[in-house]
Amino acid sequence: MSTHVVAIDQGTTSTRAIVFNHDGRVVAIGQKEHEQIFPQAGWVEHDATEIWNNTREVIGQALSKADITRHEVAAVGITNQRETAIVWDATTGDPICNAIVWQDTRTQSIVDRLAKDGGIRRFAEKTGLPLSTYFSATKIAWILENVDGARERAERGELLFGTPDTWVVWNLSGGTDGGVHVTDVSNASRTLLMDLETLDWDDELLEAFDIPRSMLPEIRSSSEKYADVEQSSVLREVPIAGILGDQQAATFGQAAFDTGEAKNTYGTGNFLIVNTGEDIVHSEHGLITTVGYKLGEQPAHYALEGSIAVTGSLIQWLRDNLGIIRDAKEVEKLAKSVDDNGGVYFVPAFSGLFAPYWRSDARGAMVGMTRFVTKAHIARAALEATAFQTREVLDAVNADTGIPLEELKVDGGMIGNELLMQFQADILGVPVIRPVVAETTALGAAYAAGLAVGFWSDLDELREKWQEKKRWEPQIDDAEREALLTQWKKAVTRTFDWVDDSPAR
Fold first, then answer.
1. Distance (Å, rounded) from C-alpha 338 to C-alpha 187?
2. How much is the average pLDDT of 224-241?
3. Closest CA to 451 of 82, 78, 77, 186
4. Pair 366, 351: CB distance under 8 Å
5. Mean pLDDT over residues 381-400, rounded?
6. pLDDT value for 42
7. What is the pLDDT of residue 313?
8. How many CB atoms lie within 10 A of CB 451?
9. Is residue 60 within 8 Å of residue 73, measured between CB atoms?
10. What contacts 40, CB < 8 A, 6 or more positions away?
11. Gap between the terminal Cα atoms of the chain
């Protein structure tokens, strides 16, 4: 009897397999980190083969910890880091180079080249996205232009592209022995190659980026049976039935199915998504228009998204680059040892600034430094940067929708940080709510897969499973809030225009 669903969460820093029961509760987790590769400034890469090997390993870990077999698994759902680009040989299954990660900025020259005709919003009406190094299309173009022989092989139909969901599904369903080459609408909407209205690859966009259509996966809904797991896997013959990009999956896992409902995920970066229903709403305030989800043959649901590049990864940077902390969990204790940030504001524009600014020329800055400042103040400023950036994105959401958000549901690895959650409520001026099940990204993928095979009946059943665990209420007044925001915005302006084309660079 099938009593569980397995979600594979292929994230930026690790791959996890999580077993959920029918109540939507976590039964077991398998997890393994993969290497973060930084060949030079602005370049961020992953080894796609390592990711696939880790995927197989964590599936075994999770099933072993849950003490279940494939016969008790109704379906597998996939969620993933979205814009990361993988190109591989269709015959051998070998990647032709490392995956280029969503944070990577090497493709700025391609962005600049395309933006000469129409600016960074050249394709926004069709795709909902600005021209940016963030999205997949420029990464594919870079690979075709810079990896020896890639262009010719792609033109001959020998190469396949996919974001990590496509790579995992292709391998999980057989790879070179019959693997299916698919993605879902939520991931496809992050490539700069899909038309939001037709939900298909667009010839004009493919021509602009000079990408052969034969490389691209088939676009499917977020909840349907794509294939069965291949025979050598411990999950053999279990249907793969759900795919959602990580932030859309978190929104789905938060049961934010209806127009106006929202969530904010605190991970490597931060991602605020507001459901706009079946309407495509184009932002005038620096947000992305994206596909939220599509269930089978039902109409697609769209969303506005505010993407912030660096939040949780800033804490990793404090640990790995500066050695201020030995473990990410130490940052809260260190930050709590001081009453405030000591006048320090930390703008982590390591990959430029994403929403709502979209300034690729920006770079990180720490301002307000005096002899009084200690590493504790820097730790506190790093946490506060996450909350300040979220406030700016939320202001853009309110401006675009005209409907002030009354509360914010949160999820992701950083929501266990009580200091951050309280400061987030303070700087937003609205309650912040943490659910009972914090693994909402994986849960969303599990929900999509379970719905496709009848493990769960409908969205109403899933709504009933969402429960609040903790709520933070604002504790500062409007005057203090505005004073803090004024200083933050002043700090943000100091990061602008840092990258230029001067000979010294």
1. 42
2. 94
3. 77
4. no
5. 91
6. 87
7. 86
8. 26
9. no
10. none
11. 63
Phi, psi (degrees; rounded to nearest 5) at 353? -110, 130
Taking Cα atoms as reference points, which of 172, 192, 190 lies closest to residue 181?
172
The first and second tokens of residue 463, run together, are 């709504």
296 compared with 402, residue with greater pLDDT: 296
Q: Which of 6, 135, 105 is nearest to 64 (CA)?
A: 6
pLDDT of 258 above 90: no
Mean pLDDT for 474-482 is: 94
Residue type, 87: V
Task: Answer yes or no: are the C-beta atoms of 430 and 474 closer than 8 Å.
Answer: yes
Which residues have CB under 8 Å from 482's CB, separation 6+?
Answer: none
Burial 322-343 (b: 16+ CB within 10 A, else e): eebbeebeebbebbeebeebbe
201 bridge partner residues = 194
Name the residue among 190, 243, 253 with its Cα closest to residue 410.
253
Task: Return the minimum-mean-pLDDT range out of 31-40, 54-63, 219-228, 253-262.
Answer: 253-262
| pLDDT tens sequence across 56-86 | 999 999 999 999 999 999 999 999 999 999 9
pTM attached to this predicted model:
0.85
Measured between alpha carbons, how far is residue 91 from residues 51, 99, 215, 244, 466 in Å?
19, 18, 13, 27, 44
Query: 213: how many CB neighbours lie within 10 A of its CB?
Result: 12
User: In angstroms, rounded to a whole number, what is the distance separating the alpha carbons of residues 420 and 222?
Assistant: 33
Give CA–CA dist 184/361, Å, rounded.
Answer: 32
Residue with tokens 């005057």: 479
Tokens found for residue 78: 């996939």
Q: 410 to each of 60, 267, 431, how far by Cα in Å?
A: 30, 11, 10
Tokens representing 442 are: 């994986």
The model's pLDDT over 303-326, given as tens digits with 9 standing for 90+, comes to: 998 888 888 888 889 898 989 888
CA atoms within 13 A on the CB side of 110: 23
Share in percent of the chain as helix, strand, coil (round to 5): 35, 25, 40
Separation of alpha carbons 229 and 500, rounded Å: 49
Q: Are strands 288-293 and 270-277 parallel, antiparallel or unpaired?
A: unpaired
DSSP 306: E
Give mean pLDDT, residues 131-157: 95
pLDDT for 355 equals 79
Residue (of 295, 176, 298, 187) closest to 241 by Cα position? 295
Mean pLDDT value across the chain: 92
